[in-house]
């Protein structure tokens, strides 16, 4: 069982020729709403890859919250630790211009109300082999959850995104740290992502630094193993990292070898980048198996 304590957002995505300047109004081209948030993304990726998943977090009692909850339950995810807050569901207001550059406003909403562990959260963590955390919920809660999981012998996997400096007590409670290159650099205070990852691995625990189309590097117990990316034509890399982590967690929860769990994670991420969207692009277990069998 994999417990994921994290954010659920509705992404409101507008495409425009060019983003408006201050005080300006422009006409958009397209508008879509896409369920997102790193927590919900990782939960969906893990569930599609065949994991037994419990999602812990909060949405609002609104249309967006119902849409996200339906998506999660439809994927077979246990939502008994998902509360309905009096705040609106978290939203990300995303403007993408013709050159593909984006600007984003995130309103945490219900996510911001998850400030302390509840009995339902503890029950979800107690039942889990692994707890997946990211940094889109209040930091104090993330620290509390990591320390609680550690005290119960539940392995903690942290995606340190969005990147912020982390308290040592959080890093000390993490078993597996999965930063991308920017997050690794910020956390270690070193520009080169591999040097940064070595630095982070020096505190003990596993580190997997993801390097986009360059793959990833797994650092364990003084050793380093590259995780090659599969050569594919990427059309949208949104949530590649969340897909990677969700699928890695499934392998680790099933007790498969790290190398194999990482290979499956890379395959799932390679499948996801070939399709547009975040949640819509995450592959099912059979697709991952078929891709690896080719
Ligand atoms: P994030 O989305 O968190 O920034 P990355 O961009 O590092 O994460 O991607 C995570 C993983 O997804 C990589 O380690 C790699 O396995 C896979 N991936 C990302 N981009 C590509 C790509 N263009 N082609 C193939 N695999 C990719």
Counting H and I runs of at least 4 residues, what is the number of helices? 10
Low-confidence stretches: none
Structural class: alpha/beta
Oligomer: single chain
Secondary-structure arrangement, i.e. CATH architecture: 3-Layer(aba) Sandwich
> Helix and strand succession?
EEEHEHEEEHEHEHEHHEEEHHH
Question: Helix amount, in percent?
Answer: 25-40%
Average pLDDT taken over every residue: 96
Strand order of the largest sheet: 5-4-1-8-9-10-11-12-13
Bound molecules: adenosine-5'-diphosphate
What is the makeup of the main sheet? 9 strands, mixed
Percent range for β-strand residues: 15-25%
Summarize the structure.
The chain has 294 residues and is of the alpha/beta class. The chain has ten helices and 13 strands.
What descriptors fit this protein?
single chain; 294 residues; alpha/beta; UDP-N-acetylmuramoyl-L-alanine:D-glutamate ligase; 9-stranded mixed β-sheet; 4-stranded mixed β-sheet; binds adenosine-5'-diphosphate
